Amino acid sequence: MKTPRAFTNIDTWVFDLDNTLYPHHVNLWQQVDARIGEYIGAFLKVSSQEARRIQKDYYLRYGTSMRGMMTEHGVRADDYLAYVHRIDHSPLQPNPAMGAAIAKLTGRKLILTNGSTDHADAVLARLGIGAHFEAVFDIIAAELEPKPAPQTYDKFLRLHGVEPTRSAMFEDLARNLVVPHQLGMTTVLVVPDGTEEVVREDWELEGRDADHVDHVTDDLTGFLQGLAASTNSQKS
Predict the structure, then answer these.
(1) Rounded mean pLDDT of the chain?
(2) Which of 26, 68, 161, 191 has the fewest other C-beta atoms within 10 Å?
């Protein structure tokens, strides 16, 4: 039986963005997902059904559909990102409770996302929590290599001077926690709460019992509130 890593001595808190810092059931990613399909269909001049098949195949094999389109078809990342992230962010509502919980965590807070900085800034602004984060490490900073590529985490750690054994990583995809756990990070998988309809691929919902997942929560705000309370009490 695995022993999950604790949060003692954590001084850096690393968060994924989409479907992690906001609830899965908002389905904001559904809009991006639809625009990815539109872009692929138009670029390759294929039907929507074939575009969907290619999109999900590349997502699974390359980490992002964009990486697959770049590798297989020479797509320009800036064109792709500008198109797929042109969405309506209004379904996101301010989350002052999450902001307060993040603020109480002792140490640095960083975003590590396969999306763009523009998209991240829009999401953080809608949630009202952007002021709590020191920096966003996006797909451009990753030199277009998405998670879960090991070199992406290496670049992130090096650029921001992060010591992985003193860091925690929050993610909604278990496969994106494999490398962080190998590096020594404490890992948290954020999952749907089970009461709302979510749009996900089957494989995206796997991995809750994996050895590289230390903790699982379906309520990130509540989890962070508990963390802040427990870590601060340990120091008092």
Answers:
(1) 91
(2) 161
Note the Cα 9 to chain centre separation in Å: 23
Q: What percent of the chain has pLDDT over 90?
A: 80
Looking at residues 69-77, what average pLDDT do you find?
Answer: 96
17, 137 contact by CB (below 8 A): no
Same domain, 19 and 96: yes
Task: HSE, CB side, 13 Å, CA atoms: give it for residue 37.
Answer: 14
Q: Answer yes or no: do 127 and 166 share one domain.
A: yes
Whether 60 contacts 236, CB under 8 Å = no
Say whether pLDDT at 177 is over 70.
yes
Q: Which domain holds residue 20?
A: 12-26+91-235
Q: Quick check: is 5 in a domain?
A: no
Band of residue 236 on the pLDDT scale cut at 50, 70, 90? very low
> Which residue stretches of 74-219 are H helix?
77-84, 96-104, 117-127, 150-160, 178-183
Task: Quote the CA–CA distance of 65 and 121 in Å, as a whole number.
Answer: 21
Phi, psi of 110 (to 5 degrees): -135, 155
Rounded Cα distance between 18 and 27, Å, is: 9
Query: Is residue 78 domain-shared with residue 188, that is, in the same domain?
Result: no
Q: Residue 1 has what pLDDT?
A: 64
